[in-house]
Amino acid sequence: HVQLVESGGGLVQSGGSLRLSCVASGFAISEHGMSWVRRPPGKHLEYVATINIDGRSHYRESVEGRFTISRDNAKNTVYLQLNNLRSEDTATYHCAGLCFGPGTQVTVS
After folding, report:
1. What count of other Cβ atoms lies within 10 Å of the Cβ of residue 73?
2. Smallest Cα–Cα separation from 63: which of 42, 90, 44, 29?
3. In what order do the strands lie in the sheet with 3-7?
């Protein structure tokens, strides 16, 4: 069955960095656009970034220039590099493709 599992979240100070990973199983990410979304505490789900099959990427305006989405098709893994983190980036981050992952928590103090 298709599955996405995120990792890499944690507690970081403002201005710090984290690298999130999303390992896919049951399907090949090389055949699909992949995205990251997030749910800040008490708020609705927000779009963060997408990487297309051809490698082109798109970002939410507030993370443009700070976050980078990438993919390693050989490892069937999608990454999200988070730099210069702000308190408003605090959220549960989910990977999305053919399904939705359980998420990894990012807390910026």
Report:
1. 13
2. 90
3. 3-7, 18-25, 77-82, 67-72
The residue to which tokens 């807390």 are assigned: 107
Fill in the amino acid letter for 98. Answer: L
Instruction: Give the position of tokens 């927000």.
Output: 46
Q: What is the pLDDT of residues 51-98, one digit of tens each?
A: 999 999 999 999 999 999 999 999 999 999 999 999 999 999 999 998
Residue with tokens 């779009």: 47
In three-state form (DSSP H/G/I as H, E/B as E, the rest C), the secondary structure along 31-50 is HCCEEEEEECCCCCCEEEEE
